[in-house]
What we know:
Number of helices: 5
Distance between the termini: 65 Å
Number of strands: 0
Radius of gyration: 27 Å
Helix content: 40-55%
Structural class: mainly alpha
Order of helices and strands: HHHHH
Amino acid sequence: MTVSSERITRRSLASPRNRTTDWSRFDAQTDADVEAAARSDPDAAPLVEEEWFETARIVEPPTKTAISIRLDRDVLEWFRSNSDRYQSKINAVLRAYMEHEQKRSL
Length: 106
């Protein structure tokens, strides 16, 4: 592999970096300026109004219960080999089965 020396930038703590942030312009911005910039940025998250905060509520995911379960070795190994979050995947499969059976019994 050939590495071009033109692409390597060497820095040390002793050598200052070229900073491009205009902090005086940043400090001079008003809240209205910041809001206008955020609204015009297509990648920015949508802004929320004060009314949203009045009706907002914290929703926490349901807690999980730790259990001991006996699984066939090949089943467990298959889930482990396909995901780092294999326990969550097993839970998702069990949930899908549960919801299917609940709909069937209606």
